[in-house]
Amino acid sequence: MVKYSSRSLNRTFAALADPTRRHILAHLASGDKCVTHLARPHAMSLPAVSKHLRVLEKAGLLQRRRYGRVHEMQLDAKPLKQAAQWVEEYRKFWQGSLDRLAEYLEKENRPPEKRKTR
Amino acid sequence: MVKYSSRSLNRTFAALADPTRRHILAHLASGDKCVTHLARPHAMSLPAVSKHLRVLEKAGLLQRRRYGRVHEMQLDAKPLKQAAQWVEEYRKFWQGSLDRLAEYLEKENRPPEKRKTR
DNA sequence: AGAATATTTAACCATCTGGTTAAGTAATAG
DNA sequence: CTATTACTTAACCAGATGGTTAAATATTCT
């Protein structure tokens, strides 16, 4: 069993619970972006986006670097890894049927011969 | 790219953002439980737990069956699977960029062994 | 210096959240 | 029938959340 920081999981999951923030993260996955750029596709004011960014930042999901007046945001998925581990750890139990558990385990311990790209 | 139901992800992540609810889910992983049983380890009133259960139920993370006056809760991991996929999809971007970074660093000053776990 | 740009902070508002206590409903036990 | 048990609903409260507009700050452009 892995040990998780409750505080960190709270913040991470809460950050992911908002569609605007998930969209921002998705956007950031294709490269670093500044605030104005991130705000453009969203039908809301800049301060609203600014707040979302602060939430993501506090959750550790992105890092901010200032170049003059421009704030450049960079994705940091470390907290995501923690969250993914938490979900997977319990999902294995919950997946219900033994068949699906077996399928999961098979994916995990696949012999090295036919390596999938990814 | 996988398509996700935004509504469902909102509810799932929001449900997971509370430590009491995560604890309840973890508890339920070891078998179905009734409300009173689930409430016992938590320092809060029964109605409070009842509310948490409703949140989990609305998120589809558990199903309720009534046997007389007892409500028995059972885990349902379907929404978790969706959530896990979402997280993994984006986490891989990060992992990818980390690997690219590692590759770059390797050219610079070749580290002897595996990457540090951070 | 003055204007424009990038972004944050402040103040405000409505709604949601997580808890409480008190009362209500339904099933079981005596 | 009455009491107890299991659980929910209702009413309430404090604090968080997600949005707004207006003002402030800092940087760059002319």
How does this model look, in words?
The structure is a homodimer of 118-residue chains. By secondary structure, chain A is mainly alpha-helical. Chain A has one domain: Arc Repressor Mutant, subunit A, CATH 1.10.10.10. Helices cover 57% and strands 12% of the residues of chain A. The first copy, chain A, contains six helices and three strands; from the N terminus they run ααβααββαα. Chain A has a three-stranded antiparallel β-sheet. In chain A, a hairpin with a 2-residue loop joins β2 (62-67) and β3. In chain A, α1 (6-16) runs antiparallel to α4 (46-58) and α1 (6-16) crosses α5 (78-94). The longest helix of chain A is centred in the C-terminal third of the chain and has 17 residues, at 78-94. In chain A, 26% of the residues are buried. The structure holds a DNA duplex (30 and 30 nucleotides).
